[in-house]
Specification:
single chain; mainly alpha; extended
């Protein structure tokens, strides 16, 4: 029986990297809009989004550029629809972005992304060693 390197653990890491990228993009959008009047800070909750990705919902969003195009995507299945807007803590300009909080979240997410990628790298390194040693026999 052939064992695939794309087992449940590997798929978990793959989805975790996708979601961490989405979290990063969400935080970067908040930072870019820090001085945009009326902008509401957004959050992509990691656990809920990862669970949706593991359940088969796609983070890829297809775009129709013509009304005659066939829809290939259900917007309710987009894991990045899990984004939450924060209305509390608005300043005089009604913007809810907290620069210090967003920078802290960005640093934390970067560390978590790096950790997941190292775990995934370790899994592939194990497969590589097994293949290398199998070829010598």
């Amino acid at each position: 029986m052939m064992i695939s390197p794309w087992d449940e653990g590997t798929r978990l890491y793959e989805h975790a990297l996708d979601v961490r990228s989405g979290v990063h993009e969400t935080i970067a959008t908040n930072l870019a809009n820090e001085e945009t009047p009326g902008y509401k800070a957004r959050e992509l909750p990691f656990p809920e989004t990862l669970a949706a990705a593991m359940a088969g919902q796609s983070p890829v969003q297809a775009m129709k550029t013509n009304p005659k195009h066939i829809a290939i995507h259900n917007p309710n299945d987009n894991v990045f629809n899990k984004i939450v807007k924060h209305d509390e803590g608005a300043g005089l300009d009604d913007n809810t972005v907290n620069l210090e909080k967003e920078m802290t979240l960005m640093a934390e997410n970067t560390l978590m992304y790096m950790a997941v990628s190292q775990f995934l790298d370790g899994r592939f390194e194990g497969w590589k060693r097994a293949i290398d040693e199998g070829g010598r026999g």
